[in-house]
Amino acid sequence: MRDGEDGGEGQTLEVVGHVTDESWLGIPALHAGGGLMVVLAVALVVHALALRLALPLAHGMAQRSRTTWDDVLVKHKVLARLVPIAALVVIGRGVGLVVGLDDSLARFVERMALAAILVVAVRAFGALLTATNELYTRNPQALGRPIKGYLQGLKVLAYIGAAIVVIATLLDQSPWLLLSGLGAMTAVLLLIFRDTLLSFVAGIQLTTNDLIRVGDWLEMPQFDADGGVVDISLNVVKVQNWDATITVIPTHKFLEHSFKNWRAMFESGGRRIKRAVHIDMATVRFLDAAEIERLSQIVILREYLASKVREVAEYNEATVPDDAAAVPANGRHLTNLGTFRAYVEAYLRAHPKIHPGMMRIVRQLHPTPQGLPLEIYVFSKETAWVVYEGIQADIFDHVLAIAPEFGLRVFQAPSGNDLARLGGR
């Protein structure tokens, strides 16, 4: 009996060893490997068809259509980024049909394919948001209400959400389990994304209050920024300075520091000219009758001089005795500086490039060691920088040239030649 039993046990061990060898090297293993190769081959074929046939067909239809939004989608490769999804779906679905493949390995491949699909989809979604921003910027209202910052914030949220779902998929866990663990990391996340969150809030306030638009002329001395705004994004505002350099300013800094926006000036239709000519006070004096007669030949001064001469004469007749009229201090007299100021006012009033509906003043400022400042405060009709500077230069060219006609001399600090002449050299 023991011999028979021993023989049975030997036969059983021999059969078990034969079956074990066949599981590793026999038909089922070949079926699993061959099935995986078939799935991979089908996925490659599907990818090639999508890349070489479906994608060019979609691009051709976009080019032939009359709409422009599909051309923008093609430009930002929204469709091209979706191409790998077809092959990944084949792999994810096909691996479950492979005969002899271990269930744990099949589930792992399915999770990898699903995670890859999520990555591809979120990249295509990011490209779609970029294309949406470009389409929106073609609207004239986009200058006052940019949405690039909002779209970038949405893109960041989409990437974070996709990362959480991908990790949960690979670990075969619920995404809510990972999200519940993020509560303990809130402080760390707030520290990491501090500038992003501040910039997002600042972007909302800047857009809501219409403080900055693309194309605005901006001055922010704290960051050496003086030029036009070329881009407003989630984190930064780019300013192209007048020397063609680019200043990048964090968006949240606009709520922490003051800045000057020149947009209101351009919208008003007038640009301020505020500049003074310094008059040598030693040349200020009363005008005599001959000078008044000569200056009355200036057309824009005739009415003013006639009115002033009559007003002064009436005042002197009523208040100054005849025996005291010869003393200048006993009466009123016209001065060359006052007449010159009236001339400049009349000249600016008749100037075709000066805005008639805005403030116009020619005033004296506090005397300085450099003379008596005569300030011109007006607004030009032209707001473009180059044209504005030309108008301003023409005005002061004329003022400087006409001042000697009134017996006035413009103050200028002595130069080396002046000192040399004084020294007799």
Automatic annotation (TrEMBL):
Residue ranges constituting the Mechanosensitive ion channel MscS domain according to the UniProt record = 195-263
The regions listed as transmembrane in this protein's record are 34-57, 78-101, 113-132, 153-170, 176-193
Gene3D superfamilies from the xrefs?
A: 2.30.30.60
Q: What InterPro entries has UniProt attached to this entry?
A: LSM_dom_sf, MscS_beta-dom_sf, MscS_channel_2nd, YbdG
Source species, domain of life: Bacteria
Keyword check for Transcription, yes or no: no
Compartment annotation: Membrane
Q: Which Pfam families match?
A: MS_channel_2nd
Give the record's keywords alphabetically: Membrane, Transmembrane, Transmembrane helix
The main place the protein resides is membrane
PANTHER family referenced in this protein's UniProt entry, alphabetically: MINICONDUCTANCE MECHANOSENSITIVE CHANNEL YBDG
The name on file for this protein is Mechanosensitive ion channel family protein
UniProt organism field: Nannocystis bainbridge
Q: What is the lineage of its organism?
A: Bacteria, Pseudomonadati, Myxococcota, Polyangia, Nannocystales
